[in-house]
Design a protein that fits this description.
By secondary structure, the chain is an alpha+beta fold. It has five helices and four strands. The chain has a single domain, classed as Ubiquitin Conjugating Enzyme. It has a four-stranded antiparallel beta sheet, covered by helices on one side. A hairpin with an 8-residue loop joins strand 1 and strand 2. Its EC number is 2.3.2.34. One of its GO terms (biological process) is protein neddylation.
């Protein structure tokens, strides 16, 4: 895993002529947060980095062990923008699934991923990557509020006929989210 000291050395050796070049706030925060995150992940989550030197792009896999999506393996891409921590990470679900808060195209409705949220639970500079991971994980366990769903058809099916909803979820898990 990359460390801040190593990152600083790389930065200074790459820019001896440019002594004003410094590690970005994002990089500084990511080194600390990723180390903390790797120690405090929910048991149903796993993160991986395509390039261990690039902490701003990684993959999250959630494998729920209970609920409607149990037995599935759901992959998310997470990109942390340069404006982090003033702006939230960009998250996309790469696994096709049937969920009221995740569109079939992979867009996600989760308050803490919004810069401005009407419920007051949106992104704030005090939030961290672990909040995002735990929030995404909760989408598979906490079916409490579908007042503002992204997938309206799934939300309506859930409220009208939970058995049909569960059958469709199982169909999607079997087709797209096998472990």
């Amino acid at each position: 895993m990359i460390t801040l000291t190593r990152k600083k050395k790389e930065s200074s050796s790459n820019s001896i002529a440019d002594s004003t070049k410094r590690i970005s706030i994002r990089e500084f925060l990511l080194v600390k947060e990723v180390q903390e995150l790797e120690q405090n992940l929910p048991s149903t989550c796993k993160i991986s980095f395509q390039d261990p030197n690039v902490l701003s792009d990684f993959t999250l896999v959630i494998s729920p062990n209970e609920g409607f999506w149990q037995g599935g393996r759901f992959k998310f891409s997470i990109h942390v923008p340069e404006e982090y921590n003033m702006a939230p990470p960009k998250v996309k679900c790469l696994t096709k699934l049937w969920h009221p808060n995740i569109s079939v195209e992979g867009d996600i409705c989760l308050s803490l991923l919004r810069l401005n949220s009407i419920d007051g639970l949106g992104w704030a500079p005090t939030r961290r990557l672990k909040d995002v991971i735990w929030g995404l994980n909760s989408l598979f366990t906490d079916l409490l509020n579908f007042d503002d769903p992204l997938n309206i058809e799934a939300a309506e099916q859930y409220s009208k006929d939970k058995d049909k909803f569960q059958a469709k979820v199982r169909e999607y898990v079997s087709a797209y989210a096998r472990r």
